[in-house]
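Bumping with the actual sequence this time:
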Amino acid sequence: MGRVQGKVVLVTGAASGVGKENALLLAREGARVVLTDVNEEGVNAVAAEIGASAVALRHDISSESDWKRVVDTAREKFGKLDVVVNNAAILAMANIEDTSLELWQKIQKINADGYFLGCKYAVEAMKESGGSIINMSSLAAIKGMAHFCAYSASKGSVAALTRSVAAHCKLRGYKIRCNSIHPDGILTPMVLNLVNNADAVAASEVKGDPMARMCMPQDISNLVLFLASDESRFINGAELRIDNGQSIVDV
């Protein structure tokens, strides 16, 4: 216990799924957490579950003014900011022929622009004191996924952005690390809504099928905790895959 004791962590998309699990685990391990989401009711409920060490804020990650407000609020409330977890995202299935310009721009606005803003304002807030930026990317940034054209491109942007931020902070002498996480599938309602026979898929994955492609939200939050902690002090600019080896097999 206490692996992030005293740290102040901002988690986007914290109303449900992976973001919620991140917030709960980080708080259990001693962090004070700033939870943000466009789902104001949901994020308030998560903060209430955690208690006094949490604050909830409505936050559209594609809005620069929202980023300024939530970062300022975090520092005013808790005196500093040590970790930013860029987790919020949207997902849609469509191949290159079926993807409209409108859908493409909608996904880039959240998944690419939102993470750019998150990194920009995290660096500004932490460049004097140091910290960790954790970006949720995807296996779609590494492997070709025909049915996720715009989503894949957005997550590829996140991976490249992560490397750029890590290099910039190292060259400037900022004690800020920036790493990306690359899951394949995660058993969240958002993902299962896109899967045929979702109940059977979920049961198979939970039982530990060696061919499983989907992890649990807790698998992600365990890695987020590690990257937020000082245990990962020498890990910077890394692409960390949580995919049960899916990226290295040909099935």
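The tokens above came from a reply further down the thread. The CA atoms of residues 145 and 152 lie 7 Å apart.
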